[in-house]
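Newbie here. two chains, one complex. Structure please?
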Amino acid sequence: MTNLEKYDKAFIDAFAVSEGDLPTLKYQDIAAWDSVGHMTLMANIEDAFDIMMEVEDIMDFSSYAHGKEILKANYEVDVEA
Amino acid sequence: MIFDLGKFAGNTALIAENETLTYEDLKIRSEEISGAAGGRCLIFLFCKNSVASVAGYVGFINRKIVPLMIDAGLDLDLVKNLLELYCPKYLWLPEDLRENYSAYEKIYERDGYNLLATNAETFALNEKLALLMTTSGSTGSPKFVRQSYENILANTKSIVEYLQIGESERSITNLPMNYVYGLSIINTHIFSGGSIVLTEKTLFQKEFWQALKNNSVTNLNGVPYTFEMLQRLRFFRMDLPALKFITQAGGKLDPETHLKFAEYSAKTGKKFFVMYGAAEATARMGYLPAEKSLEKIGCMGIAIPGGKFELTEGGELIYYGDNVSLGYAESGADLILGDERNKRLETGDLAKIDADGYYTIVGRKKNVW
């Protein structure tokens, strides 16, 4: 699986959304991405990339797009590569 | 009148993102909103953690207008079902939901909320009835708990007593006010002259923690899941000098998490209260005194002031108190019903009691509720 596939799967598993909805997805946009869903998403992403997210990044992780930037900047995970 | 707002006129009552209301402001605002609805009737209150929602609630309760509390985000089909079943005279709702109810006439607006008149044929209300609350969050179930003025007053006074909530107490809304635990926080603080920071932000947003710190919030309240989130956010490492106590309700906390928060509290000098309740008992029935939280891990505690527990032969926990609600409603026709419980509630929970008189919930009776 590529990094992008892993990243997408983390969202799809957490929120039962389709791939097409992902690019514009934001925190609290859909009922499933509430604070409980956010916990699941963070766990999925940590498992997928074998990383431990910092508190600041967990709070900053406000959208599908911004999450990619956080992973690249702070965890050496390039989702687009 | 349950909320004597004039008594605390100069105190801060509500702190929202862009305005702060004193008790005098809240008195004027709540009377204006409830005045627009006139007198005793049923109203659907679409709840958000906002000034209009809280001021509306306080005004309606004081004017003996009965709010049926629902989440502002509740699915439209579910709301329509409730409208058909309960036939309220008015809706008090965020203006962005107005378009869903275009057949209703807007008769008043304030702070981003609209008061809509349904002109429906309404049902008679029992004189004791104060409030209708759901049993489990925002499911949209037509079943509501009928709470009386006496219920609200009795439970509020008990909670204020054991948590020692006074004018210097300040909470923050991380629970919704259509949930009995969230509402009990609003009731106890407004009853005692304390203050509440109103935010729609969640624990996973920086703005929530900024609001908590900048406003020197003194207490934090959560359901079991909140405590998982707090650990995820490394709560134990946060510097929160103003925070005096933390409460937990809404389901049994696992003993491991209970222990961690009890240890944190012992170390930092903050108080940690494990509590027990249900919508059927207005909100609260039991609590574990903070000084026992390390000693009695996994325990739910003792009955609140004015309440009493008893175990049946089968081990079911029975609660007695003035906060035991009148009963359920499943449609508007039930709103005329009086007290069906006579201050006695079969909780449906199985419990055991230890040698010191502390209760632990051990399971759930089958076929209840």
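Moderator note: Chain B is about 25% helix and 30% strand. The helical segments of chain B are 23-37, 51-62, 76-86, 149-163, 180-192, 206-214, 224-232, 255-268. Thread marked as resolved.
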